[in-house]
Structures are given as C-alpha cells and as structure tokens.
Amino acid sequence: MEGVTTRHGSAPEIVLLDLDGTLVDSAPGILGSLHAAFAELGVDPAPGAVGRHLLGPPLYTTLPAIVGDEETAAQALVTYRRHYADAGLYDCTPYPGIDALLRELSAGGVRLALATSKAEVFAEEVLAHHGWTDLFATITGDSLDARRPTKADVVAEALRRLGAEPGNHVIMVGDRSTDVVGSAAHGIACLGVAWGYAEPGELEEAGALAVVGDTTELGHALR
After folding, report:
1. pTM (two decimals)
2. Residue 8: predicted pLDDT
3. Residues marked as catalytic
4. pLDDT of residue 165
C-alpha cells in the first residue's frame, strides 16, 4: 500500500491511535470481566448479547440494552470495573508487529497519541504493562464519570493536549466505525485496521480512508 498523506499533502506528523482492537486484542480481559460481573450480580444476558461486537464504544452506552434497565447497568459497570482493574486489563495481547511499529514511528519523530474510549486510568495501565508509555505524547481516554462519551470528544481532548489544529498533519488509526466518525468530526481521516472488532464492511461504510490488513501494511501507509 502506498503511503497516505494528510489534507495538507504531507505524511502525518501526528498519529492518533485507538487501543482495543487496534494495538491490543483485549477481548479476553474485557469479556471475561463482564461475564464475572454478570455472574456476581446474577444477571443472565440473552444468548449472543455479550461478544466482541460490544468492544469499542463505552460499556455504559451498551450495557442498558443487555441487562434491561439503567440501575442494573450501573451496578454491572461498577462490578465490571472492579474485576477489570484486578486482572482483566492485563489479559490483552499486542497484535503481531505492533510493538516494533510503535517504536519505529516514535524513533522516526512521529508524535503518537492514544485516543481511546476506554477509561483513561485503565488505558494508562495497559500501555505501562506493555512498556509503551514513553512512546506516546499523550494518553487520552474517557473519564470514569463519562465526561468524554464519544470518540469525537476523546479526539478533541487529545488534540487540545497536543496543541494541534484539527486535521493539521494528523491521521487516526482505529478498528471501529466510531473511530472513523469521531475523527471525521475534526476533519481527520482514519485508517481502518482489519484485525479488530469491526463487522465486515463496517469501516468502509463509515468512510475509512483505507483498511489495512496487517501491521506491515499499516507501517507502509504511515511512512
């Protein structure tokens, strides 16, 4: 794949990166913690309600439909976060080639910024666990009290921390339509990754600049 350019006609100087489904496969830790929370609360979700399709948007936006009411959803979220903080957040595996690519981009002068809908405190722990903290100019996520409920809100905060103008030599990399739509709200194109949690055709339909099949292809696109 040929390298991408920003709307200013140059290679991106800032790369905003999603976390779950983009840098790491976090499904075992997230879904395992969710099942543990449901078991503790005696919640029995409908067959097929809990799966990889849930990963991406904040759980507080998806839990009410699964458990049936806002009160139970709030209890489930608190219980989930306890299980996730204890062990689940460490049950995630970097996708092949991601570690080397992050280090190469950082060493090459690209400013990397995390832009995730995961709670920021958990995102910081995940990056630290994999030894990536120092590679990122900023680590931006949602707050525990949901002050940044959309990916557009997260991207806005990341840009503010970076002191970057929206769309100015910036590109997003993510695995769900929310990444595409959230970055587009700021005039930023999004490269989709095919190894994450999107449904077939989801990224293309949302307007992703391109969808890459592996980290080698992603590296070529970003150089």
Report:
1. 0.93
2. 41
3. 18
4. 80
